[in-house]
Amino acid sequence: MTQPNHIITRDNHTVSRKEISDNALKVLYRLSKAGYEAFLVGGGVRDILLGLHPKDFDIATNATPEQIRKLFRNSRIIGRRFKLVHILFGRDMIEVATFRAHCDQNIEQASEGMIIRDNVYGDIEEDAERRDFTVNALYYNIKDFSVHDYCGGLTDLRKRQLRMIGDAETRYREDPVRMLRAIRLATKLDLTIEPNTLDPIAKLAPLLEQVPAARLWEEYRKMFLSGKGLATFKALQQHELLQKLFPVTEHLLHEHPDFEAFIESALINTDKRLAEDKTVNPAFLIAVMLWQPLLEQAHRMETKGVNFNDAFFKSMGKVLGKQSQHIAIPRRYGLIIRDIWALQLRLPQRRGKKVWSILEHPRFRAAYDFLVLRAEADPSLREVADWWTKFQDADKDTQRSMLPKRKRRQPKRRKKPKN
Ligand code: ATP
Ligand code: MG
Fold this sequence. Notes:
about 55% helix; binds adenosine-5'-triphosphate; two-stranded parallel ribbon; 2 domains; cca-adding enzyme, domain 2; binds magnesium ion; Beta Polymerase, domain 2; alpha+beta; eight-stranded mixed beta sheet
């Protein structure tokens, strides 16, 4: 049987079920058995074709959210404008989306309650066209294990290039986050951004200011905590997007090469931890990025006559507040950032009881790591950093010997009674 040329049969591509998680397969099969079309799509297919091992799987189907919901007890419908279904398997989650019509304007123009189903849902081809890059619009069909390619994604993958579907400028205007996705995916996958896809970014970068700060928090996490943080940071700098995400930080980088070195060390460290499958806290890097802004703010207050400690603590809120206008930092992470910063003032004071309370502080480890990174850029901090390196792992006796000897109180001299 001949196939239309956008369908690549199972023997002619490298997507195999072995690379797809059991949970994603379960979802695909159940949808298919119930008579719906079911495709793996997006990063999952793309990464397998590139020889990587994806962890995240997105599924597209012609079943409506309500129909999907009925098939999976462990599922919930999310989103208002465009509903998606999240199917939960313990800590794992599979996102299932109904094929979506490509004309986003239909959705934007209709007032919320009035969206007509036909406007929102479409067929697979329309669904492909409203995705961002061609390499993200490849569909793996669970029914016959073929790959559907409506936008030339396979050719682009072979050329190792990232190309926007449709007119790049229009697509960035529709959703400016696509600019960040272009940089992130090109860096992550080592793809070249095709010239027409790259060109409009310099001009359109200011559009990022209109993106809700909460959405940029999610994007920040993906950009910096996916194992290629340093490369992404540099690419963002190169394409002048960093200043839209961390404006104060970016501004200070020019004046303080040490600060740039500090950020880069932190990113190298984060990438290394992720490569070793260790956890990373998204608060840590924000604390790093805002360290120089915090110091500058505190010094400004100090010149107005506030003492340094007060200025430092007052500046924390100011700096976090300013940054949150661009990237919304969830409260619990804001608290961690403050703890890491506050401990920077306490760590150099190594006296008596204070040392033990610092050691037991839930953020000690993060604050210590932060100090070690600072010491890399500033030799005057090395002694304190080394002291803590030794102290935290030492046995009790050594620890006691490292602390300053407590001075015996001199017995108070009795005042001579006046005669
Ligand atoms: P990764 O999971 O590796 O970060 P991904 O491409 O899978 O990359 P997701 O955010 O999981 O990224 O999105 C899944 C798919 O949804 C994408 O591959 C793409 O087809 C589509 N998509 C995501 N964001 C957008 C967007 N802003 N505009 C258009 N399509 C998008
Ligand atoms: Mg994905």
